[in-house]
Predict the structure.
Amino acid sequence: MKFSPDARPERWLGSLALAVISLISLGNVITRYVTGGSLAFTEEFSVFLLVVLTFAGASVALRRNGHIRIGLLERALPAGPRKALILFQWLCGALVLGLITWFGGKLTWEEYQWQSLSPGLGLPQWWYLAWLPLLSAAMLVRLTQQTRDRLSGRLADEP
């Protein structure tokens, strides 16, 4: 049986975000054509959903080993140094994602405390920001799973 890594929650979330973006954009186009006016909420929701889609898609790509990287050095190294390089790659990625999670969480909490409202619709800003630390934490989990599978040989270096 072939090993097939998956990130099912992120796939569903990304698919849902893309479907909703498509529907509200279509609704906005139809409304603009029929009435000459535009639906006010579509831009704010579309931007928010594009961010969710981007992070969810990046998480899926991490789990499936689909991110772009230069593997020339990895392929040239013997097994021991190659594993050290993979661990170094994990450390760098984990550091960046950990910082995004930490500071995204801090920003979300501050927006919650300040009761900031979004400029377009006046919704609580933290509703939009809460997805940043959640999805970057999901990416960190998927990066760790990918690294573990690469080190154990369950996941090929080339997708």
Remarks:
- The two ends are 17 Å apart (CA to CA).
